[in-house]
Amino acid sequence: MAQTLLMPKATAIWLVDNTALSFDQIAQFCKLHPLEVKAIADGEAAQGIKGLDPISTGQLSRDEIARAEANPNHKLNLSEPKVRVPESKRRGPRYTPVSKRQDRPNAILWLVRNHPELKDAQISRLVGTTKSTIEQIRERTHWNSANLAPMDPVTLGLCSQIDLDMEVEKASKGRPLPTAAELGATLQSAQETERLTPSYEREEEKEKEIDADAVFRKLSSLRSAPKDEDDDQY
Predict the structure, then answer these.
(1) Which of 16, 54, 137, 199 pairs as cysteine with 60 (C-beta 3.0–4.6 A)?
(2) What is the CA radius of gyration of the chain?
(3) Average pLDDT over residues 132-138
(4) What are phi and psi of 58, to 5 degrees?
(5) To which H or E segment does residue 228 belong?
C-alpha cells in the first residue's frame, strides 16, 4: 500500500515555521508547487490552517530533517509506518453458511430457469458458487440433478431480494425488447377488426328479437282469451 502524507498543507506550514528547509524541498515532500509554499511563507495562502508536526505523527524523523537542512539537494523521505494496514482483499463469491450449502443447487436451478438473462458471474455472486457448478446444473450433468428442485434463493436466505433485483436489472440493460412471436401474441389485421361487431351490439340485437317474439305471443293470447269465455257461456 503506497504511503501518503497526511494533511500536506498543514505539514508545509509547520515545516516553513519550524525548519530551514528550502521551498523546493518542502514542495517536493508535501506534493505542492514551490510558489504555493512561498505564498504560505508570505502569509498569502493557507490562512487559518494550523500547522501539523510530521514528527509527532511519525511521518518524518528529526534526523531526516537535519540531513535535508544540511544538503539542499536532499529530498525528504517518509518514515516507515509503525503499523501496517492490510490491503483490502478482492471481493470474492458470497460466503454461504455450511447449513445452507446443500440448498445452493436448488437455488441455482431456480435462477437458471426464471432468470436466463443472468450471467454465471452474477449467479456466483448471489449464491456463492462456482461457474463449473452452474454449468453442470444448466446442462443437467450435476451428480444430483435428478433430485434437484428449483427454489427461490431469497426464500432460502442465500441472498436478499434487493441484491437479486439489482443483478436482474443489470442483466436486463441493453437487451432488445421481446417480439410479438416470443410473447405468443399476434395483432389482427385491419380487415379482420373492421368485420368484427362489438359484443354489446350483438347482445342488444338478441334482446330485441326475444322481446319482439314475447310481445307477439302475449298479443295472440289476449285475442284468444275472450272467445274462449263466450264459448263457455253458451
Answers:
(1) 54
(2) 43
(3) 91
(4) 80, 20
(5) helix 199-233
- The size of the chain, in residues, is 234
Q: CA 132, CA 138: separation in Å to the nearest integer? A: 10
Residue type, 143: W
Using CA atoms, how far apart are residues 94 and 130, in angstroms rounded to an integer? 11
Q: Which residue has the cell 515532500?
A: 29
Please tell me the distance from the alpha carbon of residue 158 to that of residue 79, in angstroms, as a whole number. 46
Task: Map residue 12 onto helix, strand or coil.
Answer: helix
79-118 pLDDT, tens digit each: 877 666 555 555 555 566 666 678 889 999 999 999 998 9
Give the helix ranges, DSSP H, for 48-127: 62-70, 104-114, 120-127
DSSP 128: T
Helices (H), the chain: 8-18, 23-30, 34-41, 62-70, 104-114, 120-127, 131-138, 153-156, 161-172, 180-183, 190-195, 199-233
